[in-house]
Design goal:
Order of helices and strands: HEHEHEEHEEHEEEHEEEEEEHEH
Radius of gyration: 22 Å
Number of strands: 16
Oligomer: single chain
Number of helices: 8
Distance between the termini: 24 Å
Low-confidence stretches: none
Structural class: alpha+beta
Shape: globular
Helix content: 25-40%
Length: about 280
């Protein structure tokens, strides 16, 4: 069991060349971004992913974790993630617009839902004083089994994950709203009161009303999978982050190999205990 765990961890890490994240514990970063298990890693910004793509040395794939959907991790990413992982649709179709989700095989089996059904996101805390309402997601596809962490995830577009975190929202049009909804109008800016209807579901009829305040490039992502175009590009990128004060570019195989050595050390101790008890 110990060796099987080591092989499983290492195979996924070796299939992921580099991971960009906030400087800190590289193990916590890898576990959260690669296995969707931990929560609370300090995020980087969408601008960091754009900067990786702008170098033309690698492809940056954003990963945003931290939310749940009925007990399964909600993972915000881009469409590039699916061909990178070799994920194929077994039923339905892939993501096409905000508000849609694709289920891993294990999540679909555990929730007993499929294309055409709906799924609500879970609030990050039991008592959410900020008033962040669950977002109703439309299930459009189910992935083929991979027998890995992707099977237990619910995948959405990054923008959908931002809406679920209340960083973006949609509401009824205020252009012709009456005085019962509008507090004041000032130079094209309309301030609404608490009666304003905010949507908790993204549909074709209201998707254009969803928007984000401020610069979206500063919005958070947990990490970015970095896929260099070739070995030289990977070396050049790693050199750029050697002395970076707030970012780290991690080689996942090295981090997981270090974890495996700790597991192997525990395995040796367990073997000594078992042989000693067996001899006694």
């Amino acid at each position: 069991m110990s060796r099987a765990t080591q092989e499983s961890l290492l195979s996924r890490a070796e299939a992921t060349p580099l991971l960009l994240g906030k400087k800190g514990s590289s193990l916590d970063l890898v576990v959260e971004a690669l296995y969707f298990q931990l929560k609370g890693a300090e995020p980087i910004a969408e601008a960091d992913v754009d900067a990786i793509n702008a170098t033309e040395l690698a492809l940056g794939i954003p990963i945003l974790t931290g939310l749940m959907a009925r007990g399964f991790p909600l993972v915000g990413t881009s469409l590039d993630y699916f061909p990178f992982r070799g994920l194929r649709i077994a039923e339905g179709r892939g993501l096409a617009m905000m508000g849609e989700c694709v289920l891993g095989a294990g999540a679909a089996r555990g929730l007993a839902i499929g294309p055409g059904d709906a799924l609500l996101t879970s609030p990050s805390t039991l008592f959410d004083l900020a008033g962040v309402y669950p977002l109703k997601l439309h299930v459009v596809g189910v992935l083929e089994p991979t027998y890995g962490p992707d099977d237990e995830a619910v995948f959405v577009d990054v923008k959908t994950a931002w809406v679920a975190e209340a960083l973006g929202h949609g509401h009824q049009d205020l252009k012709d709203a009456g005085p019962d909804l509008v507090l004041k109008r000032n130079k094209g800016t309309v301030t609404a009161n608490a009666k304003l209807l905010q949507y908790n579901e993204i549909t074709e009829s209201n998707v254009d009303s969803f928007h984000f305040h401020g610069d979206a490039s500063g919005y958070p992502v947990t990490a970015a999978i970095v896929v260099p175009h070739d070995e030289k590009s990977g070396i050049l990128l790693r050199g750029r982050f050697v002395d970076a004060p707030t970012r780290q570019l991690v080689r996942l195989a090295e981090v997981v190999d270090s974890l495996n050595k700790q597991i192997f050390r525990f395995e040796r101790i367990l073997e000594i205990v078992v042989w000693t008890v067996g001899l006694a």
